[in-house]
């Protein structure tokens, strides 16, 4: 079975199941059976719990060497449940401490009360609270993701996208087939970078499980992120439509708060330099903030440079105010971040306010803008 250390557990179905596995590893079969019976009393459709109980009862008649050690059991289904058991135990053992955060959560604007970070390799979803723009751990949950690993490329490839997204809507249980359980929260895949990279598809959701299924094995969806129904309902109370960031990574990169603050300062410095160069009306300095690979929704760098040079030449002064900044390092790609902010632009002959989104890439020792557009 699983050799794991004793950990404190709350009386949730997930925690009770893990406690049962821990008790089995210590040959405390009566305690293990008590925990698993408590799980099945309220969640009889928890297939992994059913398998664990079967093993506990089987152990009374003969030794067992691994989870689901039953002759004639379907190998693929048993293997999936073994992977689920391992993912659940590892998640309980490796919860982040207060001084460690996902590297992606650089800065959240005040309106963003919470953020979600998904670790596909660990089948885990982490919920963070926004405290003064930085992340504070709240909870984590077991999840199921796409059958296939790697970058999502096209519709039907059974992959979960990797990137920075946001919750865009809520579909209640009453409006969905039973397969989606207690509801669904669509996310903003494909984003601007996905489209630039030629990635397609749609309908990537956070959703629940069918009524006869407590949870699914780790790699079983067509690309969505799937949670137990009560977990989806719980995190649903924290989600803000159009606001809450959902960052999906193949494997979360963790860092200290000191390291996170250094990244945040680097991002703020890059934004400040861009703003200052724009206000200086030094067109070469301003355009020096943009990569030669730059693209917008309608033009590449040569067209952008020509357009901005023409606009800036008509100005005698420019004043830019930036506020409500959100910044996230992009998973799966080194030296890359996406930032959104409110921009208040004033000049001698024009004034407007907008919410802007930029993608920045590191070229040499400098950050450069590779995309800019409305958020």
Q: How would you describe the overall organization of this protein?
A:
With 375 residues, the protein is an alpha+beta fold. It folds into 3 domains: 13-93, no CATH class; 100-252, Beta Barrel (L,D-transpeptidase catalytic domain-like); 256-374, Nuclear Transport Factor 2, Chain: A. The chain has helices spanning 13-25, 29-42, 47-58, 75-93, 192-196, 229-236, 257-280, 283-287, 301-313, and strands spanning 100-102, 105-107, 114-119, 124-131, 134-142, 145-146, 163-166, 171-172, 183-186, 205-207, 219-221, 225-226, 245-249, 254-256, 290-295, 318-329, 336-347, 351-363, 366-374. The strands form 5 sheets. A 6-stranded mixed sheet has the order 2-16-17-18-19-15. Strand 4 (124-131) and strand 5 (134-142) form a beta hairpin. Helix 1 (13-25) packs antiparallel against helix 2 (29-42), helix 1 packs across helix 4 and helix 2 (29-42) packs antiparallel against helix 3 (47-58). The protein is elongated and about 90 Å long.
